[in-house]
Design brief:
Largest sheet: 8 strands, mixed
Low-confidence stretches: none
Helix content: 10-25%
Order of helices and strands: EHEHEEEHEEEEEEHEHEH
CATH class of the largest domain: Alpha Beta
CATH topology of the largest domain: Rossmann fold
CATH superfamily of the largest domain: Vaccinia Virus protein VP39
CATH architecture of the largest domain: 3-Layer(aba) Sandwich
Shape: globular
Number of strands: 13
Bound molecules: S-adenosylmethionine
Structural class: alpha/beta
Strand content: 25-35%
Number of domains: 2
Strand order of the largest sheet: 1-13-12-2-3-7-6-11
Length: 262
């Protein structure tokens, strides 16, 4: 599989990619300037438009984000971005999923419940062309349950499971994923997401041989998982040190930086 890592601003690098060339994007942008990553920032609106342009019809963008709390209020940036993708760019908001961070302990303000999750907005360009829903790793058997329709009528449902069967229960859209050092590569990046998060979205929304993009590549988690699952990958990272970190994880040669070359 080919892995291409471009060093530069996502807005400029995305403009070099052909239209309708990407099957799936899995990415996590800088959130609300919570971290500086060497002082870099990004032009959300330009990048969102480029993501729509480079995505194939039926392709998907998974946008993993959270909000900062400023002067006692969450910023709501993540919601604004999701609605911009939908209302301005033309994506469908296919699903709003939750990444529940397991094992990360208690964090956040003493005046609110501890912060435990990030959003995973699943945006699609039309109807997703690949959907492989993953199992939950728990087994049960289907049982005839029922639910009440909007008009009050009772509707028999075949999707309820009771324990001790041999069918794997389908996952919901809240994913419990171990955060932090959980057997993934130990890498020097302040905001790496877990390998399982990238791998499970790649398995869900793309097929072997497809091309996966991460325009905020960081330490290269998406590229590493795409390569291991038989997908091509294009990664973009503005900070040259992180781009080289990603190249190292993928077994690619580092690109000499100008000040190093003499
Ligand atoms: C949340 S981190 C991504 C971490 C990544 N998912 C991983 O597993 O390592 C966001 C990354 O975006 C990079 N970045 C910030 N502004 C950028 C821009 N304009 N273009 C490309 N990359 C940028 C930062 O340097 C940082 O590495």
């Amino acid at each position: 599989m080919t892995v291409t890592i471009l060093t530069g601003d996502a807005r400029d690098m995305l403009a070099t990619l052909p239209a309708a060339s990407i099957d799936l994007t899995v990415t996590s942008p800088p959130y609300d300037n919570l971290r500086k990553y060497g002082g870099y920032s990004f032009d959300f609106e330009a990048i969102a438009a480029e993501l729509y342009r480079v995505t194939k019809p039926g392709g998907v963008v998974v946008w993993v984000v959270g909000d900062a709390t400023v002067k006692g209020s969450e910023t709501g940036t993540s919601f604004r971005q999701a609605l911009h993708f939908k209302d301005v760019c033309g994506f469908s908001l296919h699903d709003t999923m939750i990444y529940r961070k397991m094992g990360c302990g208690a964090c956040g303000s003493n005046y609110a419940y501890f912060q435990q999750f990030e959003y995973m907005f699943v945006l699609s360009k039309g109807r997703p062309k690949t959907v492989n829903r993953l199992g939950a790793g728990r087994f049960g058997k289907k049982s005839g349950g029922s639910r009440v329709r909007a008009n009050g009528a009772l509707h028999r449902s075949k999707t309820l499971y009771v324990p001790d069967g041999d069918r794997e229960v389908m996952r919901g859209n809240v994913w419990d994923i171990l955060a932090g050092n959980n057997g993934d590569d130990k890498v020097a990046h302040p905001a790496r997401f877990p390998e399982q998060l990238a791998a499970d979205h790649i398995a869900s929304w793309s097929a072997p041989g497809d091309t996966v993009l991460d325009p905020f590549l960081g330490s290269g988690t998406t590229a590493k998982m795409a390569d291991s699952l038989g997908r091509h990958c294009v990664g973009i990272e503005l900070n040259p040190d992180y781009a080289d970190l990603a190249r190292g994880r993928l077994g690619l040669a580092a690109i000499p930086q100008l000040e190093d070359a003499d």
